[in-house]
Amino acid sequence: MLELFEKFARRHQGWRRPLLLMLVITAGGFFAMVVSASSSTLDLWLIPVVLLMLWLLQFYSGLSLFAVIPPRVDPAEPWLYRLKRRFVRFVYHLFAWFMMLVTIAWALTSLQLTMAWLRMT
Question: Residue 25 belongs to what domain range?
Fold first, then answer.
């Protein structure tokens, strides 16, 4: 599973800077909107901006986190080195499962918030 995440992240590394730029612009727009917008404008655009910001953060985090994963353990390596590498790969596995669960949760939340937003407009 980690190899698939790493392959995807390495293949899409060109998207990291545009994603970060879009994330910063969206976050700036969000804060400007919260500070200066009227309540009707805030009600209309808060949900889409928050959803966009969360999805951009999710994709950028995934591309950054899984770009370099330690290789599998080689039995010829020293015992302590193998233990350390297994622990690091275990932590990456935990991150991968966490990212999958967060993605599922955000997909469901996005669906619910989109339906609420459509009812408001």
Answer: 2-120
Q: Which of 92, 20, 98, 90 is nearest to 56 (CA)?
A: 20
Q: What averages of pLDDT result for each successive group of 10 residues across the chain (121 residues)?
A: 91 95 94 85 86 95 93 89 94 95 96 93 73
Residues 3, 72 contacting (CB under 8 angstroms): no
Q: Please state, in angstroms and as integers, the Cα–Cα distance from residue 47 to each residue in 4, 25, 26, 44, 120, following that order.
A: 32, 16, 12, 7, 10
Number of domains, the chain:
1
Q: What global pTM score does this model have?
A: 0.85
How far is it, in rounded angstroms, from Cα 22 to Cα 57? Answer: 10
Q: What are phi and psi of 78, to 5 degrees?
A: -60, 155
